[in-house]
Amino acid sequence: MDIRATVEPLFNDEYKGEPPSKRLLGYLQTQREKGRKIVGIYCGYAPMELIRALDLVPATLCAFSNATIEAAEAVLPANLCPLIKSSYGFIIKDACPFFAISDAVIAETTCDGKKKMFELIAERRPMHVMDLPQLPDEPEALDNWTVMIRKLQRFLESTFDRTTTDAEMEGAIRDANAKSRLMNRVFDYAALNPPVIGWEELYDVLFLAQGASGAEMAPILEGILAKLEKRKQGGYAHGAVDAPRVMVTGCPIAGDSAKVLSIIEEAGGVVVAIDSCSGMKPYATPIEERTGDPVRAMAAKYLKVPCSCMTPNSRRLTEMDRLTEKFRPDAVVDVVLQACHSYNIESYKVGESVQKKQGLPFLKIVTDYSQNDVGQIRTRVEAMLEMCRR
Ligand code: SF4
Ligand code: SF4
Fold first, then answer.
1. pTM (2 decimals)?
2. Is residue 110 within 6 Å of ligand 1 at its C-beta?
């Protein structure tokens, strides 16, 4: 059953059925008209609270379309991750509206492809590259990442001719934590059995939440929560009541790579948890409040982002254990973008943990942004869901 055909949509009058990217763009354009500056980001390590404490607005830049890859391949190697090629293609084709309204860009040294791509776009906007420690459990990692956030603070302060205080950063941390709590309450409705929200609606909420602050999102999220509660009380189910529940983990996916999520639901499953930077990951860890050193508190939170560029990335497995407990999936799908070596190699450990520790079927899907492998993915997903039904 398509829940949107039978129940009140989560967003209605205020957005008139616009796609989430358009809503987010509209929000950012309004902020710009009010005189606020926009900072483009590409990664889950960008410290959003610092950006907000400086009264800047973060904008996640385009990275999820196959349409820009051909242009990118004129410069970048074809055997590079599609996310990097797509991001670069958007820039050289002047096709990313979020980049067009960005006054500066924050970059990080995550994977090799990304950091080299940043060099190629560095001249187009004021850009600051943060040197990310990649051994998160070493004692100096927190000190080093704290220094990097302070350097970013100086870059943003000098670029935008303003300063921020510890009190403002504390305020931004409280605001972010409040938003995370509300977002997790929305995720609770995906954890229900059966869930009352599907991945497309979750993405609608996630998209808008990327740009808006906690205070701006609070009334929207409270409204959404009220509608979800109504669905729950009304006995609605997203998907068939006995549909296999799937947790999706791995590389960020959206736009053309969201084909995997569509295929899972078309094949009769329901996506109940999305363990990636385009999904629930940004809301997983709160930032400690009132520590007396908000920059260090931010550093501690972001160092816990369980990305495969970290080694060891043991936090990913513990986080997946937590999600398994909460969302009770019947199977796990690990989405690896082609040529993403770190997520690809890490998939072995993830698969072992899912199968041996959780006792769940595990499917690794290596894909790109094209539609060429849709049939093959569908066959493999159907086979996995069949195992869940036995
Ligand atoms: S997966 Fe890693 S590199 Fe990619 S956005 Fe997330 S934190 Fe950044
Ligand atoms: S998916 Fe992998 S290769 Fe692509 S940008 Fe993210 S970490 Fe880098």
1. 0.96
2. yes
